[in-house]
Write a structure and sequence with these properties.
Elements lengths: L5 E2 L9 E6 L5 E3 L8 H7 L10 E6 L8 E4 L2 E4 H9 L19 H6 L1 H6 L11
Antiparallel strand pairs: 1-4, 2-3, 2-4, 5-6
C-alpha cells in the first residue's frame, strides 16, 4: 500500500523526519528542513530517559487505517487527532500568513483543515501510551 499524505505526529522510527522540538512552553518549534531519522539518531535521542515523543516531534507517512487516530468515513477517512485538537483548542480559523513548513504540501492535517491545522499543530505533542 502506498501512502500519499504525511502525518505530522508520527512515531519516531528510521525513515521518519525530525519535525521539531518541544519548547519549555509545550509548543513545537519546527526544524526546516527536518533531517531524516536514522537508527543511530534514535539511539542517541533515547539516552536522556524522557520519552523522545515528549521532547520531539516527527513526521512520517500517514498510515490511515493502520493508525488508531484514523476515523473511517463512507468511502474515505480522516485523522481524528487533528479534529480533536482543533475542537479542544477552540480554533475557528487559522493564521492568514502561514508559518514555513516542510511538509505542508503533503500534510494530512492541512489537507483536512487548511490554516486551522497550522494553528493547532504546534500544540500537539505525541505521547506514547502508558504501559
Amino acid at each position: 500500500m502506498e501512502f500519499t499524505k504525511t502525518c505530522p505526529s508520527a512515531p519516531p522510527e528510521p525513515g521518519s523526519i525530525f519535525l521539531g522540538v518541544v519548547t519549555r512552553k509545550g509548543q513545537v518549534a519546527y526544524l526546516n528542513p527536518g533531517p531524516p531519522v536514522t537508527s543511530e539518531l534514535l539511539v542517541i535521542l533515547n539516552q536522556r530517559g524522557v520519552p523522545i515523543e515528549n521532547r520531539l516531534r516527527f513526521a512520517g507517512a500517514c498510515r490511515e487505517h493502520q493508525c488508531v487516530q484514523w476515523q473511517a468515513e463512507a468511502g474515505a477517512g480522516r485523522c481524528g487527532l487533528i479534529d480533536h485538537a482543533i475542537d479542544a483548542l477552540e480554533i475557528e480559523s487559522g493564521p492568514e500568513t502561514l508559518p514555513h513548513c516542510g511538509i505542508r504540501q503533503t500534510c494530512r492535517w492541512f489537507a483536512q483543515h487548511k490554516s486551522s491545522a497550522c494553528a493547532a499543530c504546534p500544540e500537539v505533542i505525541r505521547r506514547p501510551a502508558r504501559e
